[in-house]
Amino acid sequence: MENMQAVNNFVAAYLKKKGFKEAEQLLEDLQNKESAPIDFHNDPELAKFIHRFSQSEDDVARYQDGYSKLRSWTYSSLDLYKHELLRVLYPVFIHSFMDMVAKGHLQEARTFFNNFREDHELMHSRDLQKLEGVLSQSHLEEMEFARSLRQSKVNIKICQYSYDLLLQYLHKTQSTAMLGVINEHINFQVSSGQPSSISDDAEVVTLIGSCQDTANQINQKEIHWGLLEDSLEERLEKAGGLLSDSEKTEEENKEGDVDETKKRSVESGKQGASTKKLKKEKALNATAKSARPEASTTPAAPRVKAKLPLPLMSTEVEQSILEDLRNRVQLSSVLLPSVSFYTFLNTHNGLNCSSISHDGSLVAGGFSDSSLKVWDMAKLGQQGGSSILQAENDSTSSEHVVGPNGGKRSYTLFQGHSGPVHSATFSPLGDFILSSSADTTIRLWSTKLNANLVCYKGHNYPVWDVQFSPVGHYFASASHDRTARIWSMDRIQPLRIMAGHLSDVDCVQWHANCNYIATGSSDKTVRLWDVQNGECVRIFIGHRSMILSLAMSPDGRYMASGDEDGMIMMWDISSGRCITPLMGHTSCVWTVAFSCEGSLLASGSADCTVKLWDVTTSAKVPRNEEKSGNPNRLRLLKTLATKSTPVYSLQFSRRNLLFAAGALSKNL
Amino acid sequence: MSIVAKETIEVIAQSIGINNLSDDAALSLAPDVEYRMREIMQEAIKCMRHSRRTILTTDDVDGALNLRNVEPVYGFTSGGPLQFKRAIGHRDLFYIDDRDVDLKEVIEAPLPKAPLDTGVACHWLAIEGVQPAIPENAPVGVIAAPSNGNTYEQKDELPVDIKLPVKHVLSRELQLYFDKISELTLRKSDSALFKEALVSLATDSGLHPLVPYFTFFVADEVSRGLNDYSLLFALMRVVWSLLQNPHIHIEPYLHQLMPSVVTCLVSKKLGNRIADNHWELRDFTAKLVALICKRFGHVYNTLQTRLTKTLLNALLDPKRALTQHYGAIQGLAALGPNVVRLLILPNLEPYLRLLEPELLLEKQKNEMKRYEAWRVYGALLRAAGQGIYERLKIFPPLPSPPGHTIWKSKEKVVTAVPNKRKASMEPLEDEPALKKIATDGPIGSSASVTTLASSGENDAGQPSSSEKKTGNRVGKDGQKLKKSAILNQIWKDDLNSGHTLVTLLELLGEGILSFIPSPEMSLFL
Predict the structure, then answer these.
(1) Which of A8, A176, A234, A242 is most buried, by CB atoms within 10 Å?
(2) For the residues A160-185, what does the mean pLDDT come to?
(3) What is the pLDDT of residue A526?
(4) What is the model's pLDDT at position B261?
């Protein structure tokens, strides 16, 4: 009721000032007569009216003054409501600033901005950097970010009491400027009851291009996150069910070992310590076997039909993959993976990206000099091995002195791009590589023929990321032109174009069942798109800066995304909510990867570490305790520091050996 | 208003040939320029991120300009950072030092070495989650690891999951290594194998996980084996080797290591047999202590203070044994001339008074004790001498001393001369302590002895009182006592005469002459 009074006084004062005597009289009469209070919150006309009133007072100092008062009031408010009220400050701040700029008081706007920017630096540094440059009305018009900010409303969840407190304050102090801003740009979602807890993610002011409701609507859409029917894993499980007796598995195990011995010896030649590794692997296998029954008790993920026609797999390949799956090490929080690290040397700051094939035998690096180089680690290992042998019996013959890498390069050079290569990806079987470049093209290379096969043109701006689908044949690309596109290897035109992001699409990742792709963008959102119809089916809001990396869990339930600040977020795909933020990295998270059975998450960062996170303990529990509002259950299991190598890419092999790659940088 | 000043716009306008840019135009251009610049920088940051870098380079800016369809800025693609120079006469005007390159020079210059080609190296970052201790991996922070996780949990204000004390997993290889080393140290410390082991300790990478075990081992063995001289020496050698190892971060364990090291320096009794040359052990340990202080003194600024305090307490406590005093003096001396000057010299006089009875035959009948006293004396002399030597070296251009000091020093020289001659004439084999002094003393100055003597005799017609005393004592006690008496006398005299540099020199008497570089000495003569 007091609020009402304040508003009435307000209006009366306005009318008096403008000399509308009759209207004033009328209003007074009305007030006296009418017993029912005017619901001014929900009366858009009145709100507009008040807003105009504040605008008519063309005094910029009001903003400065009003904001600083509001700020000190907020900071001195009760702790219980403080954090809720603090959320209001940021939108008020940026909109006050933009209003001041729009009115042409540039000098004042700038001092105002510099005075208070520190308060918001922690949460919104990136936005502030953008806004800082706004120096004239035309900039406001031109800058998409500012324009969309000014056109949209910010949603803020707030409890009833905090809301009342705020309004009361605003009315009491007559800070019409602030009231105007709040009215125009903030959409309060008033909830009854207790104020939400602090840990409840502080409202992120993220633009999504449409109002919040549509975003919510989008997130209501149905998603079939289950795995594909008749996948190899499923077949393996069935097979395992048939061979129930232990003898059979043992036999299988032996077989696997023999096969593994061959493979390993090739692979570990580069290490020159094959026996050691072999032992380790065997030990791992033993534990894995024992752990398997437990793992299989977890309810199997639902199966879905593939919406895309899938490529056929040859039986040989199928066999080898099945073999790999059978020999997979069951990782868990107690059994951590072995990590093999590929360090790029002498890159002269030119390495833009790296990629590792699924079996770890091929490593590709994309360079800023437009080249793509591929190393065959198995060959490299042999060379290393032979050179060691040389060293041992160097006196035997002189011809060995000219080593195998004396004049020849140790890698295969792929040239064709005309701009820095920003991403490379291996096909699941390792016979193709795709690379994307700043020259707006994507190129397909064959590792067998060592030649360029196709050049895909379609994007209009640099292509930041390209990813093969888990079944091969299809691939997705992400570009500065704000679209993600789906391609198939046999067509030079894209099959689908996903448009909707408000800024660059920085990374892209396929869902395990190939029916969806996820894209991360500089607009700080992650979106999930349906491959079949190109629709956006989920918007994940929560990151505070540009998203650099994405990973999908193998069971299709979860997604992890890493951003520029070092934050990793785990998302539940079906609900579109963040399960838990993972904090620990201090710099850009270049890459994230789930282990093959989804129990571990590995992340690699510019702070020269690989971190391993526990997924099982965290992700399973929250289903029951979703309401308790306790987000940080994902545990950091291990931090593996490299000497001075930022980690560019991570890849779990089918047998759960983790490969990591990065360029040694001395001066970082 | 904007970061870009109006003047900047004007300068740029001039550089492209617009001379009559109006003020208003410049003023309204400035904010726009800033806006564009920021825009480009934001795009450049995007390019930087997509090149997986955290440092912005000129390439990124070029990339950003490309994105905006703007022609890139040429001439900034060189690898090195740009060298800005300040324009003379302007406070905040900078330019890039861009010299004209003579093409002929470039053509004639030999080809630069081709940069190394890119390669890939492979190593195990972790095996089953454990990082192997190989040179390719960063040294493992054994202690630091757990604190990390806790802080995060605290920060998030969530149910803290309490971590159990970290179990330190040691690989089998390291366990074997440790067992081998400790066995060698305990049993076969004189074998050649032990020497190899020491080298391995000093050079191998990947020993870091063993450091806590070694520190504990050393501390434990020192406390138990104070009677075993060779064991102690071996242990100190182990410590020395560990300190040499560049791959080990021994700092966190210093506090455990220091007590045992200091014990080996100032313990009353080290080894139980007379044959044990515990003096040598003390000397070695003193060097060790000095090394530690030098290396970690800047990290732990209390380290040296605490150490010197301990040593000084040992030195100034008359109840402590002479062996302890010896160790303390050696330790202090090893810490450098400044420590000597600040801590030993002021205490020299009272200490010598204390020491004197021990040196004399008639007062100290125990041969062993006397020998120890002489040892202490020798150490003291050397410490002081080194201190003064360093000091003289630091200030080579001495102000020409006033006349009376010259005279005074001459007098001292005179008093010293006869005794020195006697010392050099004396067959010294029977008195090791004296030998030490003698070798310390005359060798350096033997060349000047004759001149010294002659000048002394010519100059000093009147024999000083100390000389007379010497004469008296010669008959009674024999050479060494005479010498000591004289020295003591001199020191006493000079301690009274103040603490200037010159008196410091005098204070230490003839024994110190050897430590004085000849130019300075000639100055005094």
Answers:
(1) A176
(2) 81
(3) 92
(4) 82
Contact A335 B126 (CB under 8 A): no
Main-chain dihedrals φ then ψ at residue A652, nearest 5 degrees: -85, 130
Give pLDDT tens digits for A17-50: 766 666 666 666 666 555 444 454 555 555 655 5
User: Can you name the residues that pair with A191 across neighbouring β-strands?
Assistant: A159
What does the buried/exposed string (b/e) look like for B163-188 if buried means 16 or more CB atoms within 10 Å of the residue's CB?
Answer: eeeeeeeeeeebeebbeebbebbbee
Is A546's Cβ below 8 Å from some Cβ in B? yes
From A97, A27, A30, A22, select the one nearest A63 (Cα to Cα).
A97
Query: In sequence order, what E strands does A480-595 have?
Result: 483-488, 496-499, 505-510, 516-521, 525-530, 536-541, 547-552, 558-563, 568-572, 577-582, 589-594
- Classify residue B127 by its DSSP letter: B
> Shortest CB distance from A352 goes to which of B52, B55, B158?
B52
Structure tokens that stand for A169 in this block: 């304050």
Query: Which residues 604-633 of A have a C-beta within 8 angstroms of B?
Result: 606, 608, 610, 612, 630-632
Strand partners, A539: A527
- Residue of A105, A126, A132, A139 to mutate, testing the B interface (most B Cβ within 10 Å of its Cβ): A139
Query: Which residues, in sequence order, are CB contacts of A439 under 8 Å at separation 6+?
Result: A370, A417, A418, A419, A462
ipTM of the complex: 0.75
Whether the Cβ atoms of residue B372 and residue B470 lie closer than 8 Å to each other: no
* pLDDT (0 to 100) of residue B147: 39
Residue A381, beta-bridge partner list: none
DSSP state of B393: H
Whole-angstrom distance, CA of residue B286 vs CA of residue B292: 10
Average pLDDT of the segment spanning A615-631: 50
Q: What is the pLDDT of residues A133-158, one digit of tens each?
A: 887 888 888 888 888 888 877 777 78
Chain A (293-332) residues lying within 8 Å, Cβ to Cβ, of chain B? none
Q: Which residues make beta-bridge pairs with A106?
A: none
The predicted-structure confidence for B340-393, as pLDDT tens digits, reads as follows 777 777 777 777 777 777 777 666 667 777 777 777 778 777 777 776 666 655
Are B137 and A642 within 8 A, CB to CB? yes
In this prediction, residue B362 carries a pLDDT of 67
Task: Please state, in angstroms and rounded to a whole number, the distance separating the CA atoms of residues A108 and A68.
Answer: 14
To the nearest 10°, the Cα dihedral for B278, B280, B284, B285?
Answer: 20
Q: Which of A368, A375, A504 sits opposite B51 (nearest CB)?
A: A368
The count of C-alpha atoms lying within 13 angstroms of the C-alpha of B357, restricted to the half-sphere facing its C-beta, is: 6
Contact B280, B379 (CB under 8 A): no
